[in-house]
Design goal:
With 135 residues, the chain is α+β, with helices and mostly antiparallel strands. It has helices at residues 22-39, 44-50, 125-130, and strands at residues 2-8, 52-63, 72-82, 88-97, 102-114, 119-121. Strands 1, 2, 3, 4, 5 and 6 form a 6-stranded antiparallel beta sheet that branches. The longest helix is centred in the first third of the chain and has 18 residues, at 22-39. It is elongated and about 45 Å long. This is Acyl-CoA thioesterase.
Length: 135
């Protein structure tokens, strides 16, 4: 399943060269993930109740086209890999310019952390199923 969010590149996301700074790409990808999880019923409050949190092991960004202030962008996220129990996952984000060209991809590898034990854990079945890789 792919989930999308749209955004406008703000002044605060620009670097001195007048285009979107490198870390803003990761910020948009993270925001899209948070909205996506909330749309699946796993918002910040639910994670707090479950004493569960997502963590990242790797984040890789490929920059393809510049983005500038005021541009409308779309950020898609889709699960591209993971373990059968949902404990570990890979999500690929594609960031599109308004004309549909791909501006960047952000790929993250992550897992779920039991916030009380501070150990990796398996997520609830509903979350594992919602984020399963489609075959």
């Amino acid at each position: 399943m792919t989930h999308s969010q749209t955004y406008t590149v703000r002044w605060a996301e620009l670097d001195p060269n007048g285009h979107m700074r490198h870390s803003a790409y990761a910020d948009f990808a993270a925001d899209q993930r948070v909205h996506w999880l909330a749309s699946l019923g796993f918002d910040v409050k639910k994670f707090a109740e479950l004493r569960l949190g997502p963590i990242l092991f790797r984040e890789e960004t490929k920059y393809l086209k510049e983005l500038h202030g005021g541009e409308q962008i779309k950020v898609d996220g889709r699960v591209t890999g993971g373990t059968p129990d949902g404990a570990r996952w890979t999500i690929e984000h594609t960031i599109y310019k308004a004309d549909g060209r791909v501006a960047a991809t952000v790929t993250v590898d992550g897992a779920w952390l039991d916030l009380d034990r501070r150990k990796l854990t398996v997520p609830p079945t509903e979350l594992a199923q919602a984020l399963a890789v489609e075959g």
